[in-house]
């Protein structure tokens, strides 16, 4: 059935493609944060263990919202590790770094999601896609704030 929501097929396709990159970044960051939650040690254990749990829980909700927006635009949402690895700008961590490196990596991950969201926001804005723009604004705010909070642990 034809989708007639006031956004052209070409614009919907471009936005969905961009949102797929946001989804891949968000999901990769979710996995990394969950890994660090399980494996953090050291003097900051309790603080980071709880902080990471809050962060990955929030990301789990976000990936669903992003994927559902892609579907509402009429395109399939990526859903495999292979697709995420191809689309994400966030590097996976194969080992268990010490807590400070975990924090540094997560700062970088949150900043990456914010940058990707900002790129896609411009496409959504040009297409008058307020729903996607709102979703991306929320993601940018959250990731910029989280990056700031994590950076503060290192100062």
What does this structure look like?
With 155 residues, this protein is mostly helical. It has one domain (9-153): Ferritin, core subunit, four-helix bundle (Ferritin), CATH 1.20.1260.10. It has helices spanning 9-39, 45-72, 81-87, 99-126, 130-153.
Record keyword descriptors for this entry.
single chain, 155 residues, elongated, 0% strand, mainly alpha, Ferritin
The overall strand count is 0
CATH-assigned homologous superfamily: Ferritin, core subunit, four-helix bundle
Rg measurement, Å: 16 Å
Q: What is the count of helical runs?
A: 5
Mass-distribution shape = elongated
Structural class: mainly alpha
CATH architecture: Up-down Bundle
Terminal Cα separation, in Å? 55 Å
Helix content: over 70%
Helix-strand string = HHHHH
Poorly predicted spans: none
- Report mean pLDDT, rounded to a whole number: 96
Detail the topology: elements first, then pairings.
Elements: H1 9-39, H2 45-72, H3 81-87, H4 99-126, H5 130-153
Précis, in short:
By secondary structure, the protein is mainly alpha-helical. It contains 5 helices and no strands. The chain has a single domain (9-153), classed as Up-down Bundle (Ferritin), CATH 1.20.1260.
């Amino acid at each position: 059935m034809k989708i007639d929501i006031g956004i052209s097929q070409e614009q919907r396709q471009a936005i969905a493609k961009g949102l797929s990159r946001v989804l891949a970044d968000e999901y990769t960051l979710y996995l990394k944060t969950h890994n660090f939650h399980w494996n953090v040690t050291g003097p900051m254990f309790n603080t980071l263990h709880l902080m990471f749990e809050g962060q990955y829980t929030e990301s789990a909700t976000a990936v669903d919202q992003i994927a559902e927006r892609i579907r509402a635009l009429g395109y399939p949402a990526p859903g495999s590790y292979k697709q995420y690895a191809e689309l994400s700008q966030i590097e996976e961590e194969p080992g268990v770094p010490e807590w400070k490196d975990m924090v540094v990596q997560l700062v970088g991950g949150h900043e990456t999601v914010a940058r990707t969201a900002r790129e896609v926001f411009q496409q959504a804005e040009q297409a008058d896609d307020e729903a996607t723009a709102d979703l991306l604004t929320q993601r940018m705010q959250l990731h910029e704030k989280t990056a700031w909070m994590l950076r503060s642990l290192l100062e």
